[in-house]
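Let us work through a complete example step by step.
Step 1: write down the sequence.
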Amino acid sequence: MTSKTNKKIIVSLLIIMICAVSSLLVYNILSDYGNYYEQTTIVKEEIIEEENINDLNVRGLKADFKLVENTTDNTIIVRQYSNKKIKDRDLVNTSVVGQSLKVQDSRGSWVVFDLSFLSSRRGENYIEISIPKDRLEHLKINQSSGSLTFDTFNLKSFDLSLGSGSITGNTIISEKIDLNTSSGEIEINTLQGDGNIKLSSGKNTYTNLDGTMDIKVTSGKLTAGHYIGSSDIKLSSGKLTFNEASFL
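Step 2: predict the structure and record it as tokens.
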């Protein structure tokens, strides 16, 4: 077999592969288009009426979460929003054990494959937890990926573990704080309390940091605009910056 023949075979195979991939993309776009709602809508809603719940445990595998205050009544409402049709197996899971409510996104790929760069529509999926602010005493977040946003909470304990993704919040005032960042980014306006901050990689940014903190930075970057308190600081690598600091 000549070199010229080999080249023709290779070119032919490439053309076949390109045609197959193009056909698959077109098929996905056309079939995917019918799966959209006209607008983002509630695909699942659960109302938790147990009045003794004061502990919220959020486990995010890949979903986006929003923690908001319920100012209407004393119930906790979990809603999953999407502008695309998703399967039942990919809906949010909730469970109540004693005084604790656990909310977890599905282990399936409910964050649907979205060819947004080839389509005029874009997939949107997120889970909203609406909770009366005065009821919550303990907040535990374990976020593997995705994002989570919150407003303001006054707590007895705040436990946050971030594997990847992002956490954005306004204010956390807590008697006990334990933050662990493997990667990803945490941005909180005000963090006040006593506890531990451990940063292995990624980025932590606080506008105001207040309290007795054991801070350990192995890598990554931690920045606080204003810090008041006492600290045991260990810096192996990375960068630690206090724009203003008052050590007690």
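Step 3: interpret the result. Residues 3-33 form the longest helix (31 residues).
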